[in-house]
């Protein structure tokens, strides 16, 4: 068992920096659908993926899904990324869900392939090696909420965010991980209620149910959740990068197994952290009563 767990928990292939620290993709309309920004200054280490498909309210179409997959795949290799933040460049909406107009043009086989690809995107976001945060300032419905659920942390605007797995109201069911991730977030009975009814929740209601970590009052610019998400990311930045990454592995993998196996996973992660320079630096900083200077090694 120990050998099997060690194989499962082996850290991903070595990080290598991206050649470009900012990029965008262009959809059929000529408008960039994805923008990737690496922040600087006090925010250095935070990278944003910005969805920018205003004509379709950031609906998850073929181009948007492909470019999200490509961006996540590239960024997972970039050691400079310490926190990944998903947000919208379209006011009033995070992501309206799957692009049903586009899906109407697909046959059954094409729909199956697309949904599998969409599910793969959510799995890649969930497995991203550093903390991920969704900033929900507007509508996050169906696949849009599934995207947010794939993130580690969620921040929503209390009044303007509208969240729900509404697929049953369209004759569908959640197909990108919602039936699995929502019960793990809320518990089985409540998740069933929300999925069966297709109910929509405000950001305030979502926080009361612990669907989001924070709900904040909206501002005039309509980006209050984004600003709170950045503040949350700033709290993560000073911490030891390897310890944060291994903590994420221990939590995520531990939730998938019984508690005894979960404890074994935690032990393996702890052992991997022991020889790191950052652990030694943390101990030295504590002894010398100074802030630690972590380097991610």
UniProtKB/TrEMBL annotation:
Family classification: Belongs to the enoyl-CoA hydratase/isomerase family.
InterPro entries, per database record: ClpP/crotonase-like_dom_sf, Enoyl-CoA_hyd/isom_CS, Enoyl-CoA_hydra/iso, Enoyl-CoA_hydra_C
Keywords for this protein: Acetylation, Lyase, Mitochondrion, Transit peptide
Intracellular or extracellular location(s): Mitochondrion
Gene3D superfamilies noted in UniProt: 2-enoyl-CoA Hydratase, Chain A, domain 1 (3.90.226.10), Lyase 2-enoyl-coa Hydratase, Chain A, domain 2 (1.10.12.10)
MF annotations from Gene Ontology: enoyl-CoA hydratase activity; RNA binding
Name of the protein this chain belongs to: Enoyl-CoA hydratase domain-containing protein 2, mitochondrial isoform X1
Biological process according to GO: fatty acid beta-oxidation
Gene Ontology CC terms, in alphabetical order: mitochondrion
